[in-house]
Amino acid sequence: MNKAAMVIAAGLALALSLPVLAEEQKAKTGESESLYGVPWLKKCSGCHGKDGNSKNPKRAKLAGQHPEYIVKQLMDFQAKRRIDKDMNKQAAPLNEAEMAQLAKYFSSQARKPAIADETVVELGESIYRAGNPATGVPACAACHGPAGKGNPKAKFPDLAGQHAKYVARQLRLFQSGERANDAGKMMRNIAIKMTPQEIEAVSQYVQGLQP
């Protein structure tokens, strides 16, 4: 092959490879998984819903959640300070700007209300508002507020209308120590004092709080 032919062949090879490289770059940056212009949102919506209201009660509702809390959890999943085989994988490729975009989007969505199980809501309200002095369980409202709205500056999540199954599972994970990304072991020290009945009841109560 003469020199001119080699130059032409090299040029054709480069031209053919450019679209492939562009797609690979899109995948790395999350552009190919964007939705409404938000990188990676398409992937997130598979479990959490396009509007952040997950249909699976074992997955958190992200709609209306404080952006500061969402970013912290994504960073903890990425660093494996919080362990979940799916979320560790999903958070791994995100950069801080993409985390912030996802958090801003989900926090701007309206969380859909839910209904509490009336058979346990009385106990749940008692634990949420007053705790259990006999066993040293403090009132949930002390950190999460009377209406369950949390505290964005302290990165305490908004619990109002959250899935009861998701809340109960997180309390059990704190109780066992499997979830350990709470500052100062705050939630672990609380959950370990709670009975299974109290966990289920308070989880139902917060599900019934109006977002």
Name a few traits of the molecule.
mainly alpha, Cytochrome Bc1 Complex, Chain D, domain 2, 10 helices, globular, 2 domains, 211 residues
What does this structure look like?
The chain is mainly α and 211 residues long. The chain has 2 domains: 33-111, Cytochrome Bc1 Complex, Chain D, domain 2; 121-208, Orthogonal Bundle (Cytochrome Bc1 Complex, Chain D, domain 2). Helix content is 54%, strand content 0%. The chain contains 10 helices and no strands. The protein has helices at residues 3-29, 41-48, 67-79, 85-91, 96-107, 121-130, 141-144, 164-176, 186-191, 196-208. The protein is globular, with a radius of gyration of 22 Å. The termini are far apart.
How would the blueprint of this fold be written?
Elements: H1 3-29, H2 41-48, H3 67-79, H4 85-91, H5 96-107, H6 121-130, H7 141-144, H8 164-176, H9 186-191, H10 196-208
Helix pairs in contact: 3-4, 3-5, 6-10, 8-10
Query: For the report, how would you describe the main beta sheet?
Result: none
Strand content: under 5%
For the record, the count of structural domains works out to 2
| Total number of beta strands | 0
Please bin the fraction of helical residues. Answer: 40-55%
Rg measurement, Å = 22 Å
**Mean pLDDT, nearest integer?**
90
Kindly, what is the distance between the CA atoms of the first and last residues, rounded to a whole number of angstroms? 72 Å
Oligomer: single chain
Structural class: mainly alpha
Query: Any idea what the CATH architecture of the largest domain is?
Result: Orthogonal Bundle
Which regions are unreliable across 5 or more consecutive residues at pLDDT < 50? 12-23
What is the CATH topology of the largest domain?
Cytochrome Bc1 Complex, Chain D, domain 2
Question: In CATH, what is the class of the largest domain?
Answer: Mainly Alpha
Helix count equals 10
SSE run: HHHHHHHHHH
